[in-house]
Specification:
By secondary structure, the protein is of the alpha+beta class. Helices cover 32% and strands 29% of the residues. The protein is elongated and about 65 Å long.
Length: 283
């Protein structure tokens, strides 16, 4: 039904149109409409796209590597041709060319893709809800008494690291190296906005929480155990929404683990679900 060929830089515009079609139907990571993200994800040297008789790209898949060197794969199928076996063709292509076990990285998860991945023996190992705030009505949440917030600078970077360590140190999988790695990653994060990222401290200089921000995104929010339940997290999120609006954005985004109870907080502050992003491994 589709004519398959290797994906090249010349296909990036068509890949963006494909990504937008998937976002409109199933939601997911808004970067699917970003040319640079689509180039990085789908023009990898091992990549294929399927065109209809008019030359429009209606499906694509690519094999790559993660930061640890493991094999990854990703794919998209236009909603117009879902249910016609195209997803199975992409999965078979990945199996033939990956050269071993592969992790599927799905930036937009449709019911059809979920069923397909289960059928071929994969299972979810991680999933996060993508959430969007329209910024039409930005909430105001008063800063808790005895709290001050400071932007990210060289002088406050250590306070950010301590806040991260204390906020997430009780979470599964955390280790001492996590905070150090996080600090390096933060500075390298694409679009990082240090002046709008804030660390919260009490009057005694103890860290209470933090929020990190990139262009249009709330990247991470953490509150240390002693300050949970005292509206600090709500204040940091609401304050950041105002900052993102002042950046000139008309919407704000965040991603939250599907199992994270903080999702209900974000919903109370005006965020709404915009689909799912997930990782799948072989059983």
């Amino acid at each position: 039904m589709l004519e398959w060929s290797a994906t090249t830089d010349a296909d990036v515009g068509a890949l963006v149109r494909l990504g937008r079609a998937c976002l409109e139907r199933d939601g997911g990571l808004p970067d699917l409409a970003d040319p640079e993200h689509m180039r990085t994800s789908f023009v990898t040297g091992q990549a294929i796209c399927g065109r209809d008789e008019l030359g429009d790209v209606l499906a694509a898949a690519a094999i790559g590597r993660d930061s640890a060197g493991g094999r990854t794969a990703t794919g998209l199928v236009d909603p117009a041709v879902m249910g016609q076996g195209v997803g199975h063709e992409l999965a078979e292509w990945v199996a033939r060319h990956a050269g071993g076990p592969v992790r599927f990285v799905m930036d937009s998860v449709s019911p059809e893709s979920e069923s397909l991945l289960v059928d071929i023996g994969l299972h979810r190992v991680f999933a996060e809800t993508i959430m969007r705030h329209s910024l039409r009505h930005v909430p105001v949440v008063k800063v808790p008494d005895d709290i001050v917030t400071l932007p990210f600078t060289d002088d406050t970077s250590e306070a950010f690291r301590r806040a991260y360590q204390e906020a997430f140190g009780d979470q599964p999988g955390y280790d001492e190296g996590s905070a150090r790695a996080w600090g390096r990653w933060l500075r390298e994060q694409r679009g990082f906005v240090p002046e709008d990222s804030r660390v919260a401290m009490d009057r005694s200089g103890h860290v209470a929480g933090f929020v990190t921000v990139s262009e249009g995104w709330i990247e991470e929010v953490g509150v240390v155990p002693a300050w949970r339940g005292r509206r600090l997290g709500a204040h940091l999120v609401a304050r950041t929404l105002t900052a993102i609006e002042k950046q000139g954005h008309t919407e704000a985004w965040l991603a939250v683990d599907c199992r994270n109870p903080a999702r209900s907080l974000y919903e109370r502050l005006g965020f709404r679900s915009h689909g799912t992003r997930a990782l799948y491994d072989q059983r």
